[in-house]
User: Which sequence fits this backbone?
């Protein structure tokens, strides 16, 4: 294969735009333009709201929805993923940056930009080094618990805007305490606006589309109109705030939003800041990647397209670096907007680029109109958006299916609510790994005997089989590695000590796919100890690759017994004349498990 | 079973002394007394030396060798384990306490006592809650690398006493820098004493016993005399220091060692101190436990006795709490002294109690004689003792056997030397877990086809088999859990997208021992996605317990295909008339792997 053959393929692997761009036509262009318009209408209020949630000036939400979309259109593999600020990542940004600087200061903004830059570098590195598998360590139930707890925290954090009071905190107890403390200062006009907007948005979600259909609109148009709910809420409450001078009655307004193109920004390269943000940046990267890939895969499957997870890392990494360079903050693929993009008929990442142009126009032209927009309205759009994230059914599901999973979910939920997002998700990951290791550290080890009339060996507790008191036949149902090496050692030792007739131990290795160095040393110790008791150790049915590796060590030379091709051969060689010594009764409890 | 029947058994399970104490006779008494005498002679200089290594006053080493031995004799299950201060734990004590207080201050001593107390509580808790499996997460090669690196650090840290200079640091670079800095102040008489004692002790180890045998001594007596080497070195250099006034010539002496019984001490209950010491205490507990249990098991096996790991945790926990209450510091079962105890014929834990009495007598009577003992002599005994710990062969072994293990060892060694013991061992544990998870996160997935003339299905890459382009048959060789759930999803998706003829996917589940909730959700997603592509998902040969659990979820109702008892049944049902579509050639590379 010459270099010429490789180049186009390799380039389009790293720049998917070369692939779909080549086949782009006017049909796709028209579909993408329509989708972009609908997504733009949805994204403008959402971008402002999520910036508010992250504790950042509203224009940063708009900036985060412009250049990152262009970057993803070039490097991403999903045809329909819409990147930008999302609720969970915005809250995680607020929680991690809030520990380092005060909201409203230049340091806070710089830290958020730096967080996006670091997250971008990490995602890019993970993509280039094919480390996408790191995301596998997040178990689904842990993510579900985390998202639910985060949704609750987000909704609670927005109550202050609805109530028109100050409140702070990144955990449930802190937020609740702060809200209760400031409650006496609640502002009635804010509550009217906030609760009104919330109810209106709920009604738009559930009641508007059926109504539009009833009055004879086409389903497609009814769908699009129902998506304009948030824009309508923004327009109505802005008008009300302007006409009724609500700003003078204590309603917090968005105020001056600088218009214009996204600025060129540079992250901080302060080592202390990088050290403090490294952990949060990694968590945000992984959470963002997992969410984004799930959405992208679900949507791609519907059209029998494929996405490349490692290239998705590159796409998201480029988006975050672009965000950091253009006045934004951490972004990822959003669920709601991607579904809207998909439903609106987007055919290629060009739809994202057109959306970016739409939001640029909004940033250029609409910002003066946002002066009178009440923050309570934005809070209402956030609350309505995140309530769909909150889903405690995972508790019921995991309780019914697996207690270990349930335990991991409950811990994640409680620690996220009680101690914050970083500790919550870290504990969830750690716990699921520990529970898994614990499970594999106690493998099932069965005593086996010969099924009469066959060459098969089965568990003595479940079948009538022939055994010999001088030969202990054990089948280990797990690969041997450091976490269960000692378990096997103890198990064998307990079985042999005080069991005087035993002269041979045969390990049936058919289920052992690997023996690591720890397990090898355990086998050496077992061999040595058994020898010092006058008992020989044999192996049977060792798989080819495992035997290859054992031959590279000196274990087989030191082995007191032999390696048999089949367990039947082993028993034939070690037993003079096997008789029915123990015809085990099937134990009902064992059979059921 | 009445309460009366249970009580003696339960009590002697938690108090093994009730078990062996009942059968104790004069034969055992005589053996234990002899063993105790020999171990006492060995332990006195060693205890002083390890206290020096831990940065503590020498008498604390003696105290740590008295009451803890009595506690172990009551609660421990090993007949011959000798607990007390050991090299690795002493260094870990110095490293963790040295971060919090200055050597020689009361705070330093109090922190060491508190560390022993916390470690005791942790061991006790791990024992009572049966958490001994936590020690399994230390892979053998990681421990070997850690012990080697620690041995090097210990030897290097003692050079300052040999050179008669000050030096500090808990990492290789710090220690080396500090030693080089102070080198010009090296004290010649100290060097003569230190190097002389080191050479003498090496000679005692290797040359004295053959010499004694040659001049006609009985092997047993020659053995005992060879063990008195350190005591002889102590006596000779103390005499030299006294006679030649070496203290005036700059040789550091042990000085005043308060005589008398161990004092009653109380650990600190300062919350900040506990927070700082929690991590080190856990590491010391686990390292100490792993070392101790390995020694105990090795020796017990030789006499076909057994030890109970969870009860060992209780024994070591009680010993450490006893140490904290009687002026000692963290202790564990030592390798060298246990072997000596065993070889000298100890028959029961009473030997340990007699050793405690011997060391008490030494603490009462001999402390005035220690005034002139040069620190260089103690340093020499440490260096000679730890050089046997240093064994780089693990690097060669792991390189030959498994690159993943090699990588974990090298990381542990380098980080222990470069950044200290806590970081080194933590990184080793973390890395071995991550490498294992990485391995299981990419399970072997084989395309299988029917072996002609049988009902068996085999890998298409290794056997001539019959397949059908409309049916994708896959065998997954690993339990499905969160770390590989997404891998299966991606693998399946890649196989089906762009492969138009496929109408059915059948997963052969014979090697799947478990499906956790994450994997269940992946299967649901796979089922859903395949359905949206018009492809049906089927399962075959699902194990009973796995199927039981699936039935508790609603997966089977949603499954687009069926669950078949055997894979043969599945293929028969899904294929109209199977023909030889692909007769795969065995691929040499695949066969070898």
Assistant:
């Amino acid at each position: 294969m010459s270099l010429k053959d490789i180049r186009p393929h390799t380039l389009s692997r790293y720049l998917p735009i070369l692939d779909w761009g080549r086949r782009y036509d006017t049909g796709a262009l028209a579909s993408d333009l329509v989708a972009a318009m609908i997504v733009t209408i949805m994204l403008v209020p959402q971008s402002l709201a999520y910036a508010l949630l992250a504790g950042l000036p509203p224009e940063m939400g708009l900036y985060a929805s412009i250049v990152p979309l262009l970057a993803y259109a070039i490097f991403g593999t999903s045809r329909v993923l819409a990147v930008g600020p999302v609720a969970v990542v915005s809250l995680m940004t607020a929680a991690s940056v809030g520990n380092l600087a005060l909201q409203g200061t230049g340091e806070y903004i710089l830290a958020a930009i730096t967080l996006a830059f670091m997250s971008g570098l990490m995602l890019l590195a993970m993509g280039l080094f094919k480390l996408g598998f790191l995301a596998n360590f997040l178990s689904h139930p842990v993510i579900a618990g985390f998202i639910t707890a985060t949704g609750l925290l987000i909704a609670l954090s927005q109550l202050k805007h609805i109530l028109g009071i100050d409140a702070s905190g990144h955990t449930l107890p802190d937020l609740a305490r702060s809200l209760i403390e400031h409650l006496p200062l609640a502002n009635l006009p804010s509550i009217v606006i906030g609760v009104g907007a919330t109810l209106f948005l709920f009604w738009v979600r559930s009641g508007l589309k059926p109504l539009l259909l009833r009055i004879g609109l086409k389903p497609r148009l009814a769908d699009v109109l129902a998506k304009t709910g948030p824009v309508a809420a923004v327009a109505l409450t802005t008008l009300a705030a302007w006409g009724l001078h609500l700003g003078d009655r204590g309603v917090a307004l968005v105020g001056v939003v600088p218009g214009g193109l996204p600025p060129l920004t540079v992250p901080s390269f302060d080592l202390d800041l990088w050290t403090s943000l490294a952990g949060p940046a990694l968590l945000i990267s992984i959470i963002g990647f997992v969410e984004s890939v799930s959405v992208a895969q679900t949507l791609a499957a519907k059209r029998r397209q494929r996405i490349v997870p490692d290239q998705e890392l590159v796409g998201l990494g480029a988006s975050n670096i672009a965000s950091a360079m253009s006045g934004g903050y951490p972004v990822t693929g959003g669920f709601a907007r991607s579904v809207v993009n998909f439903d609106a008929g987007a055919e290629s990442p060009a739809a994202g680029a057109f959306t970016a142009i739409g939001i640029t126009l909004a940033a250029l032209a609409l910002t003066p109109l946002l002066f009178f927009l009440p923050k309570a309205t934005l809070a209402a759009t956030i609350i309505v958006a995140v309530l769909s994230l909150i889903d405690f059914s995972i508790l019921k599901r995991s309780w019914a299916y697996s207690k270990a999973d349930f335990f991991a979910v409950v811990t994640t939920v409680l620690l996220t609510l009680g101690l914050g997002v970083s500790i919550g998700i870290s504990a969830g990951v750690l716990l699921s790994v520990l529970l898994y290791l614990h499970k594999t550290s106690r493998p099932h080890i069965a005593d086996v005997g010969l099924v009469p009339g066959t060459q098969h060996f089965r568990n003595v507790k479940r079948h009538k089989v022939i055994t010999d008191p001088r030969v202990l036949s054990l089948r280990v149902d797990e690969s041997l590695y450091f976490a269960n090496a000692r378990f096997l050692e103890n198990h064998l030792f307990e079985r042999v000590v005080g069991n005087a007739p035993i002269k041979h131990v045969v390990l049936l290795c058919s289920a052992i796919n690997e023996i690591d160095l720890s397990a090898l040393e355990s086998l050496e110790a077992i061999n040595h100890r058994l020898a010092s008791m006058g008992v020989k150790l044999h192996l049977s049915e060792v798989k080819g690759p495992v035997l290859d590796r054992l031959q590279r060590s000196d274990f087989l030379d030191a082995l007191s017994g032999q390696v048999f091709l089949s367990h039947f051969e082993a028993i034939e060689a070690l037993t003079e004349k096997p008789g029915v010594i123990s015809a085990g009764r099937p134990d009902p409890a064992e059979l059921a498990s």
Summary: Residues 1-8, 578-593 of chain B have pLDDT under 50 and may be disordered. The first strand of chain B starts at residue 83 and ends at 84.
